[in-house]
Amino acid sequence: MLSGLVIVLLPLVLGYLVALRSTAVLNIVNQAVNLCVYAILLFMGISLAGLENLASQLSRLGGQTLLLFSVTTLFNLVALWWLSHRVALRGGTSPVVENAPTSKLAAMAGSLMLVGVVAGGVGAGLILGPWMGVSLFHGAETLAEWTLYLLLVLIGCQLRNSGMPLRQILLNRLGLVIALTLAASSLLAGLVAAPLLSLSWNEGLAMAAGFGWYSLSAILIGEHLGPLLGGVAFFNDLTRELFAFILIPLVIRRYAALAIGYGGATSMDFTLPVIQQHGGVACVPVAVVSGFILSLLSPPLILFFLSLSG
């Protein structure tokens, strides 16, 4: 378990050590992160194409994803609703951030495009598989793993250059409480969902520990539990992001902690523009801190729970 943890956390730490002052270089890093995510999902799709009885397996994937997402969302919403009644944060009470993206459809289209990349990978695997054989699927898994390491370096760099020092993050108690509430309720949901998915308790915990970080959870789960469950982890976390785009504008004015927390790790990047637009500037640092902490918690938790199998 320790070696696997080091392999995942070392790139994250190395990236965090890199301080960038050039806006142009930061833009390149951001673009490289997006490219790595697309590459990982393409390779994951190719790996899915290597499954026997693909049609029935994909049907099973959809059913398990729906079950895991439903249980996790129920636990998250109840816990975050409870928290929202005990914290003094309301969205929409401060000026709205100017020039923040206002189109939820555009944001959701970006997320749906990720599904298209996975589907493209499946199609490529089905076309190339008969000619290249199992070497195609093994190669895709290896490339996905190495691309993940590069992605972690780049994300570590993004975290370092987010403009928010670790001291400020650790002192933001509300962001910390929201993150821990989301994490605890997700893990409890994983325990409940595990027997329903025919998984061991620790595998259920690992499946629930992605906290919305779909590119990471897909690869780590897929590497240990197979491409099918890797796909379940990916679609579960991606569906969280899609639902968050709909949920945040509806509830952030009355239940800001719920809206910020439900986005999970994405509240510091993909869902942050929606939080900015509908919650105002007061919600932004809380969302960044919550997403930051969940991004740091996810890799070690997934690996720890998976290590308990052996």
UniProtKB/TrEMBL annotation:
This is LysO family transporter. It comes from the Bacteria. One of its GO terms (molecular function) is L-lysine efflux transmembrane transporter activity. It holds the Pfam family Lys_export. The keyword Transmembrane helix applies. Keywords: Membrane, Transmembrane, Transmembrane helix. The chain crosses the membrane at residues 6-28, 35-54, 66-84, 105-131, 143-162, 174-199, 211-235, 242-264, 284-306. It comes from Vreelandella zhuhanensis. GO terms for cellular component: plasma membrane. InterPro entries: LysO.
